[in-house]
Amino acid sequence: MKRLFTSLLAILMITVAAQAQDDKGGKKHRKHHQEFSQKLNLTESQKTELKAINDDFKKQMAELKKNENITVKEQKEKRKAITDQHQAKIQGLLTAEQKTKLEQLKQEHKNKRHDGAKKGDRKGKRGDHKEMMAKMKTELGLTDDQTKKMEAARADFSAKAKAIKENTSLTDAQKKEQFKELASKQKETTKSILTKEQQDKLESMRSSHRQHKAKQAL
Questions:
Q1: What is the pTM of this model?
Q2: Spans of all domains in the chain
Q3: pLDDT of 179-198, one tens digit each?
């Protein structure tokens, strides 16, 4: 059902460079590790053991990522098994008091992420949409008139999708059916705005986006 909420323009999202993500992720991991040790008041022995546990975890995940002889399902199952084992080792390392503190930290982190997501969601969506429209205008060669019509179509789609989602008188099955119908109408509206050449280009972009998502899932 979530996919039905997604605007047809979502295929034009700009992908952040992988190397930049890796660098940022590495710094974030090191900072998290330091905060983890400090807040739980780990002993030097625990810190040493924790580093070994984390290093082994990263090594196993790296080897799994390189393994091309297993299916996507098998990879997901193996990833879960490695993660569960990693968490179990960390739990075995901590005292009862540290485990209680860890649960408190997890809950605090969860609450902060939830609050931050709520505050940034509206701003983030506006920014993403502007980027998508700019990319669409460039890639498809939209005229100003076409751009305005696409904007209006997207706004209409979003408003109707929201109305369906918030309609408490509908069952989940009824909502799903109405979302399908709405998405179908949106597709037809888009086709009526674009030329045949632009439609073909859009379909090519959709295909590339699906392939990119499939590779990310591996």
A1: 0.41
A2: 21-94, 141-218
A3: 999 989 988 998 899 899 88
